[in-house]
Design brief:
Largest sheet: 5 strands, parallel
Number of domains: 1
Structural class: alpha/beta
CATH architecture: 3-Layer(aba) Sandwich
CATH topology: Rossmann fold
C-alpha cells in the first residue's frame, strides 16, 4: 500500500491555521477522504501533557535546549502513535505544526540555529518530512494581535493558559517570522507560502489549489 499524504500547516500563532485546517478537513471529506487531524505540541495523551508545560506562561525559566527537547519528545510520540500508523495505511494526515515550527521558534526565535534542529529531526523523527507544507504569514502585527486576543478569551472561558510564547517580545516573533521565510526560500518545492492579510476564503482557495496540485503530481508519479 502506498504511503498516505502528509500535510502540515505552519505560521505564527494567530495566522489562521486552525480555521484553515477545519476548512481543509471539510474540503477533503467532500471528496470522500477522511483525514487524520492532529497538532503539535499535543495530539496524544503524552503530547498534551508536554503541551501544558510548553505553552503555560507559568512555565518560567525553561532553557531553550529544554524547550526544544520537549518539542521533539512530543513529536517523536506523535509520529509513533498517530502520524506514521496513519500514513502507513494510506491515510491523509493534516498536522498543525511540525519541525518547521521548531526551526522557526527555537532555531530562530531562541537563536539556537537551524543545524541542531535539522539534526535532531533526522535522529529523533527519522527525517520524516511532509509532502506539502502550507505556510501562512499574514502581517506580524495582525497575527500577534489575533493570538493574544484569542488566548485571553480562551483562558477566561476554560481557565487554560497557553500564552507563554505570546508574552515574548516582538523581536522574538520577528526572528520567528524571518526564519519561516528562510525555510520557504530553502524548500520551495515543499513549502507553499501564503502571505499578506487575505480573507479567510482567499487563503482557503490558495490552500486547496496547492494541495490538489500536489495530490495530482503524486498520483502521476
Amino acid at each position: 500500500m502506498p504511503r498516505g499524504l502528509f500535510i502540515t500547516l505552519e505560521g505564527l500563532d494567530g495566522s489562521g491555521k486552525t480555521t484553515q485546517i477545519n476548512r481543509l478537513a471539510v474540503w477533503l471529506q467532500n471528496r470522500g477522504l477522511e483525514p487524520v487531524i492532529t497538532r503539535q505540541p499535543g495530539g496524544t495523551a503524552t503530547g498534551d501533557r508536554i503541551r501544558a508545560i510548553l505553552l503555560d506562561s507559568r512555565s518560567t525559566g525553561l532553557a531553550p535546549m529544554t524547550e526544544m527537547s520537549l518539542m521533539f519528545a512530543d513529536r517523536a510520540q506523535a509520529i509513533a502513535e498517530v502520524i506514521k500508523p496513519a500514513l502507513d495505511t494510506g491515510k491523509i494526515v493534516v498536522c498543525d505544526r511540525f519541525t518547521d515550527s521548531t526551526e522557526a521558534y527555537q532555531g530562530g526565535g531562541r537563536q539556537l540555529g537551524s543545524e541542531i534542529v535539522l539534526e535532531l529531526h533526522r535522529v529523533v523523527c527519522g527525517n520524516l518530512k511532509p509532502d506539502i507544507t502550507i505556510l501562512l504569514l499574514p502581517s506580524l502585527s495582525a497575527s500577534l494581535a489575533r493570538a493574544r486576543r484569542r488566548n485571553t478569551r480562551d483562558e477566561a472561558a476554560t481557565g487554560k493558559d497557553e500564552n507563554r510564547f505570546e508574552l515574548e517580545q516582538d523581536a522574538f516573533h520577528s526572528r520567528v517570522w524571518e526564519k519561516y521565510h528562510e525555510i520557504a526560500k530553502r524548500e520551495p518545492e515543499r513549502v507553499t507560502l501564503i502571505e499578506g492579510d487575505l480573507s479567510i476564503q482567499e487563503v482557503h482557495e490558495q490552500i486547496v489549489e496547492a494541495i490538489a496540485e500536489k495530490m495530482l503530481l503524486l498520483k502521476q508519479a
